[in-house]
Design a protein that fits this description.
Layout lengths: L5 E5 L5 H13 L9 H12 L5 E7 L2 E10 L2 H8 L1 H11 L6 E10 L8 H15 L4 E8 L3 H9 L3 E8 L6 E9 L1
Parallel strand pairs: 4-5
Antiparallel strand pairs: 1-2, 2-3, 3-4, 5-7, 6-7
Helix pairs in contact: 3-4
Length: 185
């Protein structure tokens, strides 16, 4: 039996169509069951990939991209525009004790359905954090996780994420999204 090789690397432009297919596939399954059109996928990708500090990684297993994750740097003003006053105020208060900390928004961790429950998202998160640590800077990493996404919650807790206490209604009522954070030194 051949040895299964898994590599995490920076996203390359040629990976984008596969990453969008994974994004669409991941959201088609539990817990979202969303049908995302190609137009919606392109709009979401454009929104995320044009952000300052956009960084994306892929997991490649035996030469096939099976997962991806990306983050960007976000200012308090941008956070306020995107996520509202409550989260922006929370972050602003958090930064008063350490104003040199850069805020990172963990936008997405998506895994093709047939590769889920194999710790791909956890590996991506770990790889991303390892690379952030190499910069020598301090970060406040933010993520939004729907309350019924138990696998994502477990992964976040494994890395030391905690709830901010700020919640937002999910598109699937009555579910909520919780905002999570991690301080990375």
């Amino acid at each position: 039996m051949a040895n299964k090789r898994t590599v995490i690397r920076l996203l390359q432009p040629a990976d984008v169509p596969r990453v969008l297919a994974i994004y669409q596939d991941a959201f088609a399954g539990f817990p979202w069951y969303e049908t995302l059109s190609d137009t919606e996928l392109q709009a979401r990708w454009k929104h995320d990939s044009e952000k300052a500090g956009f960084t994306a990684y892929v997991v490649e297993k035996d030469g096939l991209v099976v997962a991806s994750g990306w983050h960007d740097a976000i200012s308090i003003d941008q956070l306020r525009q995107e996520r509202g006053n409550e989260l922006a105020d929370w972050v602003e208060q958090k930064l008063t004790t350490d104003p040199d900390r850069q805020v990172i928004w963990e936008r997405e961790l998506v895994v093709a359905q047939q590769y889920q429950r194999q710790r791909m998202a956890t590996r991506l998160r770990g790889h991303s954090e390892s690379n952030l640590k190499l910069s020598g800077n301090k970060f406040l990493i933010l993520a939004r996780i729907r309350e019924d996404n138990i696998a994502s919650i477990r992964s976040a807790r494994r890395f030391g994420f905690s709830k901010t206490g700020v919640r937002q209604a999910a598109s699937t009522k009555p579910l909520k999204h919780d905002y999570w954070y991690r301080e990375l030194n």
